[in-house]
Each structure stands twice: as structure tokens, then as C-alpha cells.
Design goal:
The chain is α+β, with helices and mostly antiparallel strands and 103 residues long. The protein is built from three helices and four strands, in the order E-E-H-E-H-H-E. The chain has a four-stranded antiparallel sheet with strand order 2-1-4-3.
Length: 103
């Protein structure tokens, strides 16, 4: 099971989108163990509930990218965080929102 982040222009298009990033439980737990204080990572905390859907709008994505960059420095091996950041960068470049869907 994973929290799927799907890149799409509109929510109605998420089922047709092939661009997604699967946030597994392990990475999710590692992110939120480090995303403290909560106020310093408000966009990342929109994804805190692993079993709930969430939306991150295009205008929020540059700040999410900045949060991911800061939190990556706290990981001894940040490769998965960098993959997540690249996914967010691509969504920004494509002008899309991100839709988190819980399986």
C-alpha cells in the first residue's frame, strides 16, 4: 500500500494520468519524524494522514519543493526525498497540481 501522488491539471484527470509518485509507509514515517516543528513544513503536513486524500495546488508546489530540500538535509541517505523533489519539479514544469490518493 502507498500514498499515491498523481500529477494532473484537474482532479477529473487523475485516473488518466500516468505520472505518479508512490510514497510508501516507510518514507512517509521518516519524513514526518523529521518534519518538525509542524509549522515549518505546512505543505508537507497536508500529506500527514497516510489514509486520506489531499490536494497540493500548482501555486503551493514551489514551497513544497523548498520544504523537501530542507528536510532532505536531515536524511543520511536522501535519494528517495530527492526523487520526490524531482517529481514535484516536473509537476511545476508541466503546470500541474498534485493529488494524493490513499489506496
Amino acid at each position: 500500500m502507498a500514498l499515491d501522488l498523481i500529477q494532473a491539471r484537474h482532479e477529473r484527470e487523475i485516473h488518466a494520468s500516468r505520472r505518479l509518485f508512490a510514497l510508501d509507509e516507510r518514507l512517509h514515517a521518516q519524513l514526518f519524524a523529521r518534519a518538525q516543528p509542524r509549522g515549518a513544513y505546512p505543505l508537507l503536513h497536508k500529506l500527514r494522514d497516510y489514509y486520506a486524500d489531499a490536494t497540493l495546488l500548482l501555486g503551493e508546489l514551489p514551497r513544497l519543493l523548498e520544504e523537501l530540500t530542507r528536510i532532505a538535509a536531515q536524511f543520511p541517505e536522501p535519494s528517495q526525498v530527492h526523487e520526490f523533489a524531482r517529481f514535484v519539479e516536473q509537476a511545476i514544469a508541466d503546470g500541474d497540481n498534485l493529488y494524493a490518493t490513499a489506496d
